[in-house]
């Protein structure tokens, strides 16, 4: 049911023989799924050499031919989606329906880049003198080192892989050691689609060792990282020493603003479903709920009703609507958030504790009466804990929503066109959903501002992130 855990370097799958490694755990029951090999220093050097060789081949391949291989990979991902979805659910915990949606969306992302890579257009700028032709070209940046976390084993890697490949770059990706299977199966689709050896390489290992070996290498020209703010700052510092291009998609703490003129019950249903997706382990998950006083009680009642109706269990079991947290660290973090809220006068409306005697389950939780300086209101929870507080005026809620150093995503609900425009302009975030949570699609930019990072994935911006602009003046 699971998958063989291996490295992929220079077109070859490498097992754990002679290599250190670690066990991969099913968070629903604590059982070992498999043993993951770690790349040795020699493996990392081999990956760097392979990526340099692969880049020379891939950048010379036409955008038309690159597109055909990417489309084939997308087709294989769809053909294999049932198996890959089960692999993801076993290693990460999310319910099967969410894993399935993730894998199929990953295929859509590959298709988007397969087409957009054929449209990496330059332009001709009229010269000031007769006979002068001025050309602006987009060229692939080179070897890319990409680093991805555990919460979306397929979707996060594919954003980086597909964008880089469509631009003509080669890639070394270090996916999460806790959820390696999804990315292994994704890479297998690209390999089976006919990607030349060395163009895509997959490694695992102690994160600091891998990043500190790959990023300083002269071979690597671009870094793409998704993860926490502290780690992102460290990797950005390493990249800065070599003046390397960087995309950073870091943490968030997404405010939700519900105005009194919104349908309180409908809004609660929409945003609660989004909140508890993947047990709240989503970087754009709604995490701070500000509801205007007139609608507060109605919204809170409906949101709480939704949370209480969630069925916890193994993500592969029929009827389960929320799986476990991905690891024991998240359980400890949830308890810390809840305890801090209680100590500050917060009230637990529902949930608030661990669930069951095996696996990493935490109850869907709703907290009220927490001050703005409570831990749950100032630090990214990355779990199924929802603080809901009232507000009075537009200016007040804007100040509170924008008060943190995060700026990844934000949401607002209103029936007024004027209010929708005003709040969309006022919220400081890279992505804002107004009466909608659909802020992440293959064709739209995904990225944050402030300490939530810089650069974008998705859309034309996601392709440009892997190119250098060259200007040629020809007389």
Please tell me about this protein's structure.
- The chain is an alpha/beta fold.
- The chain folds into two domains: 7-250 and 450-474, Aldehyde Dehydrogenase, Chain A, domain 1; 254-434, 3-Layer(aba) Sandwich (Aldehyde Dehydrogenase, Chain A, domain 2), CATH 3.40.309.10.
- Helix content is 39%, strand content 21%.
- The chain contains 15 helices and 20 strands.
- The strands form five sheets. A seven-stranded mixed beta sheet has the order 14-15-16-13-12-17-18, with helices on both faces.
- Strand 12, helix 9 (264-275) and strand 13 (286-292) form a beta-alpha-beta unit.
- Helix 2 (63-79) packs antiparallel against helix 5 and helix 3 (81-92) packs antiparallel against helix 6 (181-192).
- The radius of gyration is 23 Å and the shape is globular.
- The model has no long low-confidence stretch (mean pLDDT 97).
Describe how the helices and strands are arranged.
Blueprint: E1 7-9, E2 12-14, E3 21-25, E4 32-37, H1 41-58, H2 63-79, H3 81-92, H4 96-116, E5 123-126, E6 133-140, E7 143-147, H5 155-167, E8 170-174, H6 181-192, E9 200-203, H7 207-214, E10 220-226, H8 229-241, E11 245-249, E12 254-258, H9 264-275, E13 286-292, H10 293-309, H11 328-343, E14 347-350, E15 365-368, H12 375-378, E16 385-391, H13 394-401, E17 409-413, H14 417-426, E18 431-434, E19 453-454, H15 459-464, E20 467-474
Parallel strand pairs: 7-8, 7-10, 8-9, 10-11, 12-13, 12-17, 13-16, 15-16, 17-18
Antiparallel strand pairs: 1-2, 3-4, 5-6, 6-20, 11-19, 14-15
């Amino acid at each position: 049911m699971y998958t063989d855990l291996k490295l992929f370097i220079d077109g070859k799958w490498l097992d754990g023989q002679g290599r250190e490694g670690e066990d991969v755990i099913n968070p629903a029951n604590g059982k070992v799924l498999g043993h993951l090999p770690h790349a040795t220093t020699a493996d990392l050097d081999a990956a760097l050499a392979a990526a340099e060789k692969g880049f020379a081949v891939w950048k010379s391949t036409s955008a038309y031919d690159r597109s055909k291989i990417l489309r084939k990979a997308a087709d294989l991902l769809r053909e294999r989606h049932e198996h890959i979805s089960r692999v993801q659910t076993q290693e990460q915990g999310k319910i099967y329906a969410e894993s399935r949606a993730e894998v199929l969306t990953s295929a859509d992302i590959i298709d988007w880049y397969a087409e957009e890579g054929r449209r990496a257009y330059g332009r001709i700028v009229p010269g000031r003198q007769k006979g002068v032709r001025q050309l602006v070209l987009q060229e692939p940046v080179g070897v890319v080192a990409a680093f991805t976390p555990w919460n979306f084993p397929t979707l996060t890697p594919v954003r980086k892989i597909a964008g880089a490949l469509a631009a003509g770059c080669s890639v070394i990706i270090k996916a999460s050691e806790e959820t390696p299977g999804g990315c292994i199966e994704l890479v297998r689709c690209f390999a089976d689609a006919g990607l030349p050896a060395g163009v895509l390489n997959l490694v695992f290992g102690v994160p600091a060792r891998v990043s500190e070996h790959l990023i300083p290498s002269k071979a690597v020209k671009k870094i793409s990282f998704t993860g926490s703010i502290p780690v992102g700052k460290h990797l950005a510092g390493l990249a800065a020493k070599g003046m390397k291009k960087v995309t950073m998609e870091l943490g968030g703490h997404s405010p939700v603003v519900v105005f009194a003129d919104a349908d309180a019950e409908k809004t609660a249903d929409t945003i609660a479903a989004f909140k508890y997706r993947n047990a709240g382990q989503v970087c754009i998950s709604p995490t701070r709920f500000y509801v205007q006083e007139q609608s507060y009680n109605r919204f809170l009642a409906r949101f709480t009703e939704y949370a209480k109706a969630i069925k916890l269990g193994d993500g592969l079991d029929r009827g389960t609507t929320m799986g476990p947290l991905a690891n024991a660290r998240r359980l400890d973090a949830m308890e810390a958030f809840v305890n801090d809220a209680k100590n500050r006068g917060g009230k637990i409306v529902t949930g608030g504790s661990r669930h069951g005697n095996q696996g990493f389950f935490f109850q869907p939780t709703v907290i009220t009466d927490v001050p703005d300086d409570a831990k749950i209101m100032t630090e990214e929870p990355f779990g199924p804990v929802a603080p809901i507080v009232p507000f009075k005026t537009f200016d007040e809620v804007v100040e509170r929503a924008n008060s943190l150093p995060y700026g990844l995503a934000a949401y607002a609900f209103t029936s007024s066109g004027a209010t929708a425009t005003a709040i969309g302009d006022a919220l400081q975030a890279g992505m804002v959903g107004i009466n909608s949570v659909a802020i992440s699609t293959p064709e739209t930019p995904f990225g944050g501002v402030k300490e939530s990072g810089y650069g974008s994935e998705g859309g034309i911006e996601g392709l440009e992130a892997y190119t250098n602009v060259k200007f040629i003046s020809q007389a």
